[in-house]
Amino acid sequence: MFEIIKSGGWLMLPIILCSIAVIAISVERYWTLDSTKIAPRHLLAQVWGWIKNNQLDANKLKELKDSSELGTVLAAGLSNSRHGRDIMRDSIQEAASHVIHSMERYVGALGTIAAVAPLIGLLGTVFGMIEVFTAITTQGTGNPGVLASGISKALITTAAGLTVAIPAMMLHRHFCRHIDTLVITMEQDAIKLVDALHSDRRVDVKTS
Prior knowledge:
This protein has nine helices and no strands. By secondary structure, it is mostly helical. The protein has one domain. The model has no long low-confidence stretch (mean pLDDT 85).
């Protein structure tokens, strides 16, 4: 393996660094974007129970805000619920924008790596082919070792770049989709809470 990396030239270093970054980001985001941590299923029912039993106070709001991302969004709405439906919705949207930004952290880097890694590999291909043609110009075609070295460098960097880019792209898509699903879940729970507090119709808040 070391010989393959060595034969790929110095451009293998940034490709290896990209692969390490992909692994680190994926592990961190997988741990952070756990659905049970972001949007607990029964949180809305718990909050509604507090409201019905007149248990909602500053301490409960702080507990709610610190519990999860969904809790942060709901706490923002509840803090301004007395000012009317529109103010409550605006508060929820503002809190949600910060939560979504936090959830999307590092995910964009996966997309960047997926785009850049093949270009680094292509650059290695160009350097390898330059080396090949330079060898042909100066030594002719009588030294197959030099030609093979340049061609090897070209092929290895291209393959390495694609090897990093393909899983990076797949992981980027996966996390984007997962974040979209979490956002929809939080949006539905927030709407239920707003409707329950500022609507005459019955709203089911027992399920998330």
